[in-house]
Records
---
Amino acid sequence: MSDRSPEPGTQQSLAEELAAIPYEPLLPIEKWLIAVSLILGVALLGILSWASATYFPVTPPSSASGSQTPNSQTTATSTSR
């Protein structure tokens, strides 16, 4: 990369060149490709989410003393002293 800053007229000529480019709407095939890509992405995300929940379920850890939570065990231990 060069350490030189762009010439003062370069930015103006670049803006003029970009303004001179005519508007080109998307072709029907481009619209179709965008739509298919978005639908495929959402569908695959749903399949991945389902597979993750089915094959790798996340369950809370079970406590050794039944239905007590760790906080209630700590409280019961500290009150029995």
---
Amino acid sequence: MLPALVGAVLGVFPGGWALFAAVNAITGGDSDKATLPAPWQLIAMVLVIVAAVAALTAVPAHLGGRRPVTATL
């Protein structure tokens, strides 16, 4: 889960801010056209991304763990 957490944090905060700066530069700095999300929304996005990665990782691991080890080897 640590790689997902690091990826989400780097993608949302530096990546998100860079994307916002690019969009803000394209729109001419008009804050009515491009607004920055609230900090709680950014934190919630990081938590949802980590939870989604955990869920999508747990399902195949659970299904793979049901097979006997001897059959897998």
---
Amino acid sequence: MDKFWWVILLISVFIGGQWMMMRPSPREKHLMLLREAARKLGLQPKLIPPPEWLVLEHKQFIACYSLIIPTAKFAYSRCQQQQGQWRCMTGTDLLAKTALIPQASYLLAIEAQANSISFYWQEEAGMDVLEPIKAWLTTLAEPTRV
């Protein structure tokens, strides 16, 4: 009978270990909450392979958060952060219209086309930066509204 309880204990430890491994890590939980907060603010988060024009050290998926502005009409433009400085790579310089916000340091690039404006980032910041970034993107879109 003593062996029976040892076997039961061993099986329960094995099953409990497998269950613990299935749980999301603290980083995954943070990313889930961050993306859910973005959805509540009207941003559309998605993970995509990095675009060819975005040079990164690694080829992992990157977060792209898009803001749809139905009344905006953007010509295609793209601004990218290179060596700590923002540069317009294609199209009109969106960033010349308004001042940069401190939260822009978390972003890698901004891309505007048709009625959406998107930003690429590594999701390193917390949820508190999403609202200022969304407000800033909205102000970037305002001068281009027709």
---
Amino acid sequence: MTITTRHLFATAGLVLACQGPASAQEVFKCSVGGKTVYQSAPCPGQGKSLEIKPGPSEEEVQAAKAEADARKAKLPGTVAPARAPQPMAAGHAIGKTVDCAKLNKQRGDAYGRRNAGIRGSTSPNVDRSMEVMNARDDINRIEAQMASAGCAPT
């Protein structure tokens, strides 16, 4: 039985594949035909060995994040962490009573304007995107008021 070059390379490839990952590998920078190439074997008669250092450990990353957060908190003009919203009595905003039925009516009207704008914009040469966008803004504003007042949508 003869060993061919193909068998030799296949065997060498299997041996290299079975080796575990090295913690520090050497990389060689070579110039081949005027182009720079990087390889794991030394360059024939030329090249430099480059040392690739491992990145920071998980502990170092966490320590750096904690230090950055501490520095950020000391900067002037930084915003304090948000507080949890305080519960309000249902149907009441600060100092005034909210009419949930009126808000639900406004919400329904805004949805009607939005839907009419969407239907109308399907006609050729009609652009109602601003009308739809304004109605969506109204819907969001009204629903935020309803949520803060404890009103349920109907």
